[in-house]
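User: I'm writing a tutorial on reading structure tokens. Could you give me a worked example: one chain, its sequence, then its tokens, then a sentence or two explaining what the tokens reveal?
Assistant: Sure. Here is the example chain.
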Amino acid sequence: MKTLTMLAVASAVLAGCGGGGSSDAAPPPPPATEAPATVTAECAALPNAAAAPSAAAVPLVLQTIKVNGEDRQYYEYAPSDVAALRERDARGVEVVISLHRAGQSAEDNARLTGWPTLAQEKGFVAIFPVAKSGGWNTGRDAARSDDHAFVVAAAAAVRTRYGLPSTMSTFLTGAGAGGSMAQELAMRELGVMATGVAAFGAAAEPATLNLPAESLPKTAMAVWQFQCGPDAFTKQTDFWRQANGTNAQAQAAAGTLPTVTDFVKENPVQQVKVSRLDRPAESTELSRLVWDEMFGKVVRFPDNKSYNGTLHAEKSIADMGLAETNKALRPGEPRRWLTYVPPQYQQLVAEGKKLPLLFSFHGRNGSARFQAQISEWHDVARDEGFIVVYPHGLQATWTTSIDANNTDVQFFLDLLDEMKRTYQIDEGRVFLNGSSQGTALTNRIAVQYPQLFAAIAPCYSGHLSAASYANPIVRSDIALPVWQCRGEQELPSEFPGGTAGETAARTFWRETVNQNFSSPSIAIDGRRTTEIWNSGRAEYRWQITSDIGHAWHPGQARKMWDEMLKRYRRNPDGSLQRL
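And here are its predicted structure tokens:
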């Protein structure tokens, strides 16, 4: 690992001699603004053009990885507070890949584009892959280095190094040959996890654009095409419009650039922007525009396999109407959580009512904010009148051991007491939900304290080890409605407990606890197939969703609330009541 520093470049070009430096001299007239900068067809400044001002010097780190037996290099910039950013919201630390043009170094690309400065400011990681001496192998020539595999591997290495989720949104950008490489990757390499691409004066290889649509992965992408010369790259633009299924168009300036945007009416972030560029591509100004107007506004959910997930508007804590709390519920142990209180709370309390309470736990390398965004429990709570809490795990993870002194189980118990002190809570209608490792925590809490809940919904995946259910703290004497689910394409290695844990969890809740032994009824709802047992002490559901792997199932929260959770209450004597 080698740390380098990008040197600032002097930007002033003196015109004329005039005078001996007297302070009384009149200032030079401002440059004319009506004449656009002269650029090449690839959005590059002409060779004799003055260099644009660079950002302040920032450190880059040179990384080396081995791809197909060959050492490859890329430069990387991570914010100085990246560890704190990850701790707060691992799902918010995105990755931008900037690919240099022909004849330009990766270091110069970083300096000119200003992506490192923006990474520090906005909280993402920027990487700058280095092409071999022959330039980018956009055409996948088998006799040359595999640049597609290289960039995919570099993105994966960065995600691993900073503890980011493997499905973290990644963005591609580049000018000229770098832009062509970005287009190729977005069209052909799902492994790079691209969510958006911004290409300056560039399109994919003609051979790629001429491929039958069915031979390329199906994917929607937030796309920004910048045109400089006479080539409008119509075929590339048409490809993205068709891939995105755009059905509406708007014309409005993006910054100062005339821009046409094709988009999906029902999902405006699924869009294709086309702008005419009158200046060089590599500038902090343009990089900021791309981030602020596109990259920073969109996220991909891996919620279907056949279409590379779906694009969604990125939402902040404030966007979702959540309140953030940082508080030590025990001396010296500050913890963090997000709370949603429905707007009708005061009215309901004034009517003498108490509200149900639901906790939803995020997965490993997740965050409370992202769990809120993917699950949308707060939207259900707004309509149905209950309170939602999204707890946040330390170091973006949970402790799910069966140990009696499990610190995250204690955190939950403390947090439950905090909610009861703060709000008018219906203690008979408390529910748990989680995803992935958050599901494992849901199971862990419920096996020890089933009497606290009216029902639980540990979905998706996430189970305890098979041996855990023999631990003395595990209770099987209290019936508890349970809804478990998983994605049909999930691999056993992708969720806690593996196949044995999944089988043990199903047997424990369905038979050992709820004593359902007869055949289930089957309910099919689109991609969801659910087995429903109601012959025992309490209801049990097992759901498999097709065309999805280890990811939250869209619309799942509302389905679970409507079909099971809202129907149950735990009475003061411990019995279950079906409402």
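What the tokens reveal: Residues 407-422 form the longest helix (16 residues). The chain has two domains: 73-313, 323-578.
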